[in-house]
């Protein structure tokens, strides 16, 4: 004989209507028609996928297990609460499942997921497949979690639009030391990252100040995987050239320590007249 206890946990309403409540699967999570493992199984939430729910998540407790009531795949069902992580996100619930990633590509967090504002104007498309990848750093504080890094990307967009007067965040992609890639203008739109060269290449910025230390391995791996993803998907030419921001514009960006890393990458090319420190000084 089972005893049912129905509980309703209220979640405090946040001041911004753009925040959403998400139940994220910590592993492949079965969803049943009714509470209990002997009920009919109708679907499985892949590990890493998050499902949006309303301000109050209902539970049914049977024995030692609490079952959360969710809407998934167009149906109402129940999932073991122990297999879910309750999270609050800005804009939309993330999908961290393996199925959400293309082959050879890192996880790319969409604009909707990190809570991007709409561009202030329509932005033109790149005139051809980019042959350059320009690397940058944010020249500010670091981030090491998805929540922190998403907030940093939003702050970049706010600065570029509100202070610089640009139409959107300037970079093509932003990378955090959490190992994630954040979609900015993306593969196809002309960026505002490398003055005089925006129609020739993509701009990838790593969050942090890399004048005295290099990005961590998670960020460096994400950068190289993103470039490989672009090549394999036809978004970057196969004979592409990597350059630092300072190779073509007088600036310290992307930082001396970061330059010390990328100068050893096979596609890096130091142009005549580069503004970067001499290679012998790195």
Automatic annotation (TrEMBL):
Protein name: Peptidoglycan-recognition protein SC2
Example GO BP: immune system process
N-acetylmuramoyl-L-alanine amidase domain segment(s): 121-255
Signal peptide positions on this chain: 1-17
Pfam families: Amidase_2
InterPro entries linked: Amidase/PGRP_sf, Amidase_domain, PGRP, PGRP_domain_met/bac
CDD domains recorded: PGRP
Domain Peptidoglycan recognition protein family positions: 106-249
Keywords, alphabetical: Immunity, Signal
Molecular function in Gene Ontology: N-acetylmuramoyl-L-alanine amidase activity; zinc ion binding
Naturally occurring in which organism (per UniProt): Mizuhopecten yessoensis (Japanese scallop)
Family (UniProt): Belongs to the N-acetylmuramoyl-L-alanine amidase 2 family.
């Amino acid at each position: 004989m089972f005893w049912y206890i129905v509980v309703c946990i209220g979640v405090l309403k946040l001041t911004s209507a753009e925040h959403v409540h998400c139940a994220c699967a910590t592993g492949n999570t079965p969803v049943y028609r009714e509470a209990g493992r002997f009920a009919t199984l109708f679907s499985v939430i892949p590990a890493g996928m998050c499902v949006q729910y309303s301000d109050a998540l209902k539970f049914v407790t049977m024995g030692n297990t609490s079952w959360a009531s969710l809407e998934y795949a167009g149906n109402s069902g129940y999932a073991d609460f122990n297999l879910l992580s309750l999270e609050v996100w800005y804009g939309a619930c993330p999908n961290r499942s393996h199925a959400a990633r293309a082959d050879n590509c890192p996880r790319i967090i969409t604009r909707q997921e990190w809570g991007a504002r709409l561009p202030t104007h329509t932005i033109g498309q790149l005139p051809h497949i980019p042959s350059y990848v320009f690397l940058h750093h944010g020249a500010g504080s670091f981030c090491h979690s998805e929540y922190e890094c998403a907030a940093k990307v939003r702050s970049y967009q706010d600065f570029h639009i509100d202070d610089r007067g640009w139409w959107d965040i300037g970079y093509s992609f932003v990378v955090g030391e959490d190992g994630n890639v954040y979609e900015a203008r993306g593969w196809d739109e002309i960026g505002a990252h490398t003055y005089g060269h925006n129609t020739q290449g993509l701009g990838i910025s790593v969050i942090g100040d890399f004048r005295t230390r290099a990005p961590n391995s998670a960020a460096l791996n994400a950068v190289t995987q993103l470039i490989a993803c672009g090549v394999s998907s036809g978004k970057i030419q196969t004979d592409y050239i990597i350059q630092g921001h300072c190779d073509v514009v007088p600036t310290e960006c992307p930082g001396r320590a970061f330059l010390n890393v990328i100068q050893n990458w096979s596609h890096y090319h130091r142009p005549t007249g580069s503004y970067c420190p001499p290679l012998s000084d790195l």
